[in-house]
Amino acid sequence: MLEKMDKFDAEEFIEEFEILTKDVERVQRETLQKILEENGCTEYLQKWGLNGRTDPESFKACIPLVSHKDLEPYIQRIADGDSSAAILTGKPITTISLSSGTTQGKPKFVPFNDELLDSTMQIFKTSFAFRNREFPIGNGKALQFIYSSKQFKTKGGLAAGTATTNVYRSSHFKNTMKAMQSPCCSPDEVIFGPDFHQSLYCHLLCGLIYWDQIQVVSSTFAHSIVHAFRTFEQIWEELCTDIRDGVLSSRVTVPSIRAAMSKLLEPNPELADMIYEKCVGLSYWYGLISELFPNVKYIYGIMTGSMEPYSRKLRHYAGEVPLVCADYGSSEGWIGANVNPKLPPEFATFAVLPNIGYFEFIPLREYVDGQEQGKIDSTFLSMELKPVGLSEVSVGKEYEIIVTNFAGLYRYRLGDVVKVVGFHNSTPELQFVCRRGLLLSINIDKNTERDLQLAVEAAGKLLWEEKLEVVDFTSSVDVSTEPGHYVVFWEVSGEVKEEILKECCNCLDRSFVDAGYVGSRKVNAIGALELRLVRKGTFHKVLDHYVGLGSAVSQFKTPRCVGPNNSTVLQILCNNVVKSYFSTAFG
Ligand code: AMP
What we know:
The chain has 20 helices and 22 strands. It has 587 residues and is α+β, with helices and mostly antiparallel strands. Strands 9-10-11-18-17-16-12-15 form an eight-stranded antiparallel beta sheet. The protein has a four-stranded mixed beta sheet with strand order 2-1-5-4. The protein has a four-stranded parallel beta sheet with strand order 3-6-7-8. It starts with 9 loop residues before the first helix and ends in a 5-residue tail after the last strand. Bound molecules: adenosine monophosphate. The site of adenosine monophosphate has 15 residues, from strand 9, strand 17 and strand 18.
């Protein structure tokens, strides 16, 4: 498929996708067979007595469901350079990806190989083909807020970096972007620069230099796009000065970035004036992206799941430019493509590509005669709820997704909950629901990432009338006093009146509607929810902390709950608290 990319024929790609999704049961069987043929000789598969069998029935009977923790010793041996045997894959693994790890507090190692790269390109091209049908772009450039993570060698000499970094470094990626008529407007030195603040500054500058050629503004996750334009609000005058004088700001100190930027910069007072005029003419920066880049056709990035809270701000910056949600995947591998790009991000769906892995789904609720049998706590999943295959899922139901892929993961619990909302031919279209597992729980209460998100959204509305917003948020459980209580940390865009914050705090408390929480609150088995307001820039410090650990800004997700295993982040937050309120919602 990659060879075809010299010239991208979108219709041909759509046609291929249509064929691929006609009979997913067959494609899944063939894909599993291929995976097991390539890797049947591995220590891992041999251990479970698969004995060369490649059919789904034997596979499921022999191989257990696992999580990252179970595979960690194997992955660690690969990273340490153990070449005594084929451990997880027939072909040796030469690269390790670091997952963003923002949920666990530290990045995880996962294997990366050429097959994952191929599937990344397949998914990029598939969704691009559908996108281009709805929002055609001509020849131009993309303002992509992409950054590489620190790359290092593992003990065994394998290259390690975030999955996005591994992708950006590949020539396949560059060729694909070129073929899609939207190469990144920034030079490689900016993308791979060692300091993301400097890279961000230069991404913005490159975007402005090529302002009339920019067709797409994108990043992996919406957070990075919002972060970029929030930064623009602070530094736009400095950017104008650079453009006016043709001299790069002294804030950029990395010699390779300075050298690359000097080739692009030349004095352009007319452009500087134009940008200046546009910026001063905007009200609360509404429509900033469409003003700066009048030829932009859409804004592209993952806007679902934990990115949903940023899409409001993104819409504000976008003005009339459509927001298009990017595909669904993870460092472990891709899952589905957005083939309905016109759907607003909050309704985005992902059609599973049946040839990039073998997928199974654990039903998260029990149904009897179509009737839901109550909420089953996904962390204590009953194994009687047997996983079903890709062709066996039902519309309207929620599942935990299990992945088997070409990079050494077998029946791997990814940790995500998805909902089936329809089918494209015979492949399911999924909606991302949330990360599996509970975020906030003190006793019988059960609240997920999504529950917190909904509560923050409800309470955040009280700020809108004041033209204020929640910049970012997280939570923790405080059990240092009896009874324990929920703590929600908020960074807000400006000064908020005391009485509004009190109301927000009450609203947060009331918005956790889980019966366990409400019941516990009523009898004071859980104490009053506490809203802690943190100083402006606190979440920036949290981001910096993760980048220091090896995360890439491109893959950053604010952790929505900070537990004791994440004490540095908790400390950053607690050190920056400026005010705190306790709810009076339950008297
Ligand atoms: P990473 O740890 O950086 O590999 O991130 C992978 C995780 O990001 C997935 O397991 C999901 O929880 C989340 N994710 C990826 N794509 C999407 C999407 N389109 N919508 C919502 N969440 C996503």
